[in-house]
Amino acid sequence: MMAVSPALGQTDKLDDLFGKLKTADALEAARIEREIWIEWSKSGSPAMDLLLERGQQAMAEGDMATAIEHFTALIDHAPEFAEGWNARATAYYQIGQIGPSLADIGQTLRLNPRHFGALSGLAMIFQELNQPEKALEVWKAVEAIHPHAAGVSDAIKAIETDLEGREL
């Protein structure tokens, strides 16, 4: 087992970026978001970074089975690296494996509670499972972390409108 810093996803640089993200305008927020993703993708090991890269490449090519193999190997060797779990959650979701995706989202958030990508995935799953109250709660958590996250305010408005309509 490889020693990966347990503080991955919790560095001073990330704290600074998240602080700026809350007050940034939309354009600046997009730049900060890219920086956060770059930081999240650093495992501290070139070999683990390569597994993440290969899995992401396989996913981009639509080869989810290979992507999941790479992400599983990454998780096996670096279980404290949140981005391995998040990447595999995404791959599972893309092939309709909601249970395994939810389990990996849970691990991602245990390791990195500010992971707005994992939270967004969780909110989408709750919406698909017709659990709008839970989806709304998670979307609001995403918005609190990343006010300019793509589609979040629209998702919140749509769910709130739908829930108001049900109450009438």
UniProtKB/TrEMBL annotation:
InterPro entries: TPR-like_helical_dom_sf, TPR_rpt. This is Uncharacterized protein. It comes from Tabrizicola oligotrophica.
